[in-house]
Amino acid sequence: MGADQAQTLKAIREAEAYPGPSLVIAYAPCINHGLKAGMGKSQAEEAKAVECGYWHLWRFNPALEDEGKNPFSLDSKEPNWANFQDYLKGEVRFASVMKQYPTEAADLFAACEKMAKKRYDSYKRMDAMDWSNEKEL
To answer: What's the CA gap between 129 and 71, in Å, rounded?
Structure first.
């Protein structure tokens, strides 16, 4: 919600309109994340998570498949990957890794960023799929 309130509302409306079970997956910082800025800044933390690529905004609406449209929509812009590591360091749950395991922290943070990039690339591929020529089985 902190990254894009309109996208949040659209996702909830789509989920509500779908004639079956719906699931809304959202990133919500909690007190255990240890936001250095404080829990009063959780909306800003959500925006940072999306901006740097830690979290991605997307929707999946199976009803669009019947219309020959791609049911997957990637709503996130290309992340600013340069801010990824700083985002991690802004939460105590990650910063404590740097204090407790300083030699391993860089590798762990790099692996986290690598997986976030891989996930984003996967979402881009799904978003680019052409569903207009799908045949019924």
So the answer is: 9
Tell me, what amino acid is at 71? Answer: P
Indicate the pTM of the whole model: 0.81
Report the chain's terminal Cα–Cα distance, integer Å: 38
Integer Cα distance of 97 and 32 in angstroms: 14
Q: Assign 58 to helix, strand or coil.
A: strand
For the CA atoms of the chain, what is the radius of gyration? 18
Query: What is d(CA 61, CA 120) in angstroms, rounded to the nearest whole number?
Result: 19
> Closest Cα to residue 53, out of 35, 72, 77?
77
Contact 74, 58 (CB under 8 A): yes
pLDDT tens-place string over residues 34-72? 666 666 766 788 899 999 999 999 999 999 998 999 999
